[in-house]
């Protein structure tokens, strides 16, 4: 795929977050013009020497429902990279507000970070939010591309409890988790493709190179940490009971538990070649990611 550097302005939402910042650095490396949409200017991504990213502007908005500032942030942009909002009961409404702001600003294209298997009756409850958002974007008439990511490698290390046990109703199902780096590479290729129309209306499944069981995930974590980490399959009832101590709202608990039931159902076992096709290299495995990012799992090390 040929990358162009003369494309229009790209607005990157969530630019201070894990995914948005990685994309911003890649766009800067390609010489692309971009506007970094953040809540706090001090958290906008910068070069290693602290200098601002070249060809970049910074726009501030309090959130997706901060309509006046979102419209201003998107004005003049030809494309918007829309990172999904944090899980919340009004998440879809937040997404709709951001999409409406893009329409009002005259944006041509949205590249939206969705989820693998997004559907109105998806096992994973949060995947339903993504489907409703996708449908709303389709209804606007904007050109669009959906990046349907699997669970992140980074999220797996946070499934481990303080006792070194991953607990959940995942059965012996498999999941093909993916790295933020791979998603950022694919997004860069799509946003800067010299033939953008070939991505219009497409939904791409972004996964790692292999599908692992949670037992295999635990074994990999044991290997790198030198600590015994295991997987304990729960029933759904046990999963809700074991999470009651967090006093979290029901929508959050439903999301936590259903991420495991989606694994058990085989919904997250898909392995695609999208990363390799767009990035020109194999997708990063969980084992490789653990090697590259030891700071992400150092909390699991023996005391």
TrEMBL record:
<dbReference type="InterPro" id="IPR008030">
    <property type="entry name" value="NmrA-like"/>
</dbReference>
<feature type="domain" description="NmrA-like">
    <location>
        <begin position="8"/>
        <end position="233"/>
    </location>
</feature>
<protein>
    <submittedName>
        <fullName>Quinone oxidoreductase 2</fullName>
        <ecNumber>1.6.5.2</ecNumber>
    </submittedName>
</protein>
<dbReference type="Pfam" id="PF05368">
    <property type="entry name" value="NmrA"/>
</dbReference>
<dbReference type="InterPro" id="IPR036291">
    <property type="entry name" value="NAD(P)-bd_dom_sf"/>
</dbReference>
<dbReference type="InterPro" id="IPR052718">
    <property type="entry name" value="NmrA-type_oxidoreductase"/>
</dbReference>
<keyword id="KW-0560">Oxidoreductase</keyword>
<dbReference type="GO" id="GO:0003955">
    <property type="term" value="F:NAD(P)H dehydrogenase (quinone) activity"/>
</dbReference>
């Amino acid at each position: 795929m040929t990358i162009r550097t003369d494309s229009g302005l790209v607005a990157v939402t969530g630019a201070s977050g894990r995914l948005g910042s990685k994309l911003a650095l890649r766009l800067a490396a390609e010489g692309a013009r971009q506007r970094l949409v953040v809540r706090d200017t001090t958290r906008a991504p910068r070069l290693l020497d602290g200098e601002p990213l070249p060809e970049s502007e910074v726009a501030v908005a309090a959130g997706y429902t901060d309509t006046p500032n979102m419209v201003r942030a998107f004005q003049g942009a030809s494309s918007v990279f829309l990172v999904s909002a944090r899980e919340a009961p009004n998440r879809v409404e937040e997404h709709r507000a951001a999409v409406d702001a893009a329409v009002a600003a005259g944006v041509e294209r949205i590249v939206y970070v969705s989820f693998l298997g997004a559907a109105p009756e998806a096992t994973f409850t949060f995947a339903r939010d993504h489907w409703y958002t996708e449908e709303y974007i389709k209804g606007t008439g904007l050109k669009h591309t959906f990046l349907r990511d699997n669970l992140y490698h980074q999220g797996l290390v946070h499934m481990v409890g303080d006792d070194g046990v991953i607990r959940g109703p995942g059965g012996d199902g498999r999941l093909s988790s993916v790295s933020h780096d791979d998603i950022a590479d694919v997004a860069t290729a799509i946003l800067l493709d010299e033939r953008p129309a070939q991505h219009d209306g497409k939904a791409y499944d972004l996964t790692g190179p292999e599908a692992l069981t949670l037992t295999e995930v635990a074994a990999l974590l044991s290997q790198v940490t030198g600590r015994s980490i295991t997987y304990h399959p729960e029933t759904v009832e046990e999963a809700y009971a074991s999470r009651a101590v967090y006093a979290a709202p029901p929508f959050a608990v439903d999301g936590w538990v259903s991420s495991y039931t989606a694994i058990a159902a085989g919904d997250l076992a898909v392995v695609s070649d999208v990363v390799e096709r767009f990035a020109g290299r194999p997708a990063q495995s969980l084992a490789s990611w653990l090697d590259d990012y030891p700071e992400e799992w150092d909390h699991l090390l023996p005391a």
